[in-house]
Amino acid sequence: MKHFAEARSEAFEAISQDENLRKRIKRACLIWDIKGKLRFLFDGQEGEDLEDIQKQVSDLLKTAAGPYWTEQTWVWSNDSKIPEKKVYESAWGEAETLDSGPPEIRILDRHFSKRAWFKPPLSEPWPLNEHTPPVLSFFSFKGGVGRTTALVSLALQLARNGKKVAAIDLDLEAPGLASMLPGAEGQIADYGVVDYLLERYLLKTDEIDIEDFYHLVDNNVVVGDGPPITVIPAGNLDHTYLQKLARVDYETLYKPPGQEDDVSVSPLTELLKDVRRARQIDYVLLDARAGFHDLGGLSLSGVSHLDVLFGLDSEQSWRGMELIVRFLGRDRIERTEKQLYCALVLALAPDPGEEREETFQRFLERSYAIFSDRFYDEEDVDPEEGWPLPAMDALGQPHYPVILGFDHQVQRFRKVEDIADRLAAGDFKVFAESILERVGRTLT
Questions:
Q1: Given CA atoms 276, 281, 283, 289 in this order, what sign does their dihedral have?
Q2: Global confidence as pTM
């Protein structure tokens, strides 16, 4: 039995390693459709027998791709009709170069979903400088690692130090941020992210009232004498929530500006801009969906100034983290883009002592090996163009972990007021200081 992953790899090898075929074509593209079937597009060298090339390709791919080969070979030539040429040009433009040639060989993967994990389409809603609020995404490959608790900790510490914070719940499938940060008397906004994403395309801009989508946390036990925390929940978990969630088209969130059939802006970007304008925000904290969810990928797709990655000292966690690190680093380098800034967190670490030190050292060594292979560029690369390889013990670098220990009392809390002071001390305070340092800020 031939599996899809084997067919995908062997098909490319068959085309790229056949020297006779390479001499006969100018360029080629392997097109994998949304069901996993393969088509082949090529442009032949002048004077070559195109039908013979088609037969040669079909024979190669019948063996290499097996049941995944459609036996459809498209010829891109001067004789192609205008509609066909447009289709071919579009496919070629969307495809990724795997062999720069000659001939150049590209591959085009079409998907039902997860577009944000393949070609990150968004950019920061505003450049980061001393006058603009940092946007921080909190992401974990697995749930249950204290990601949301860490976000709440940073939010309340910033608020206690006079900063205006917006905390936004992007975990639409398993919302939890609003239950940790409810408004007065436990109230939560009637509408949230899911409503905004759905309605942004249905209503005119002047019909959107951002005040409908947030509530304020002004409990002085939580924020002290500081300003209230602005919380945009995933939405109100009433009987209509699933109806709305089922209508959110994640594809519309990915489309970049400037294409004829695309929207001009992403509603996620507009949400950040709207809340910044309305609340004069100093910091935006995004609680991202765990795992390879569309919104998880979107929150790591360049919309943030810093991606905060939570990992455990376990093989299961590292296997997922390897893909995340490559997504933020090596994948972007191969597209001639600069890596995205991230901070790695060793979550649920043991209590201070010998076991913590051993765990940290083991975690650091594994992290450095993964980042060296999948994130950093060459040692002598221009920092303006890429992220050069640092020393393993270089503090503040993406691979160098911030420690956040397991707090039993925090895990057992019923209301955030009960643990607010604990969330502003110990590891939580060190965590906040370390993360803010990465974006050139301090708590005070």
A1: negative
A2: 0.84
